[in-house]
Prior knowledge:
The protein is 26% helix and 32% strand. The protein has a 5-stranded mixed beta sheet with strand order 2-1-5-3-4. Strands 8, 9, 11, 13 and 14 form a 5-stranded antiparallel beta sheet that branches. A 4-stranded mixed beta sheet has the order 6-10-12-7, sandwiched between helices. Strand 8 and strand 9 form a beta hairpin.
Amino acid sequence: MRIHLLAFATAAEALGRESTEIELPEGCRIGELRGLLGSRFPALAPLWGRLAIAVDGELVGDDHRLPDGAEVALLPPVSGGSGSEALPALTEAPLDLAAVAARVSSPGRGALVLFSGTVRNHHRGRAVEAITYTAYRPMAARRIEAIVAELEAEEPDLAVALVHRLGRLRPGEASVVIAATSPHRAAAYRASRTALERLKAEVPIWKHEHYADGSSAWREEESLLSAERPEPVGAARG
């Protein structure tokens, strides 16, 4: 059987490409795929303890049996860094805070919490000139939509909009905007904070930092979490 393999950030660098077709024996499991890839691509070896694996956009464990034609994604830890049909969860366009807030505003919701995360011009004492954000888009969009839907289901008349920008951003540009509105401020504050924390833990978005000295580095800090599991998928167990 054949699968379509995708790789992101440092996994793509180790693989030497962002996608490839792989022939596997029938009934192959994820654990066996790890072994096969480890022998073909030795540069992946240092990453295995940190990589999560998704099959057709859903995180899976080593016992998962692969179907023929599956799309398998190698997902390094993410950077940490939509209650709307009209508002995309992911966009390359500059973020419009007023438009995001307007999407969830209502005369019946007296509290509005608007969060904007912007690119800093430094990281750990190094001058940052730009950050490039990339994503596993189908899975990222679905996870953002699920986070929003789950938060809105927890509180009466709560509305949340979450939009993340992709592409190359300069310091001062907004990379993420979250708007939460509710009849009461406590629910809006709580939803805004939870949306951000879940975004950083569950959504496959990576950032590549570009420094003033001409060097660059992937910021891979948080192993992706499955919505059904409290532990990082693919993380080393201690």
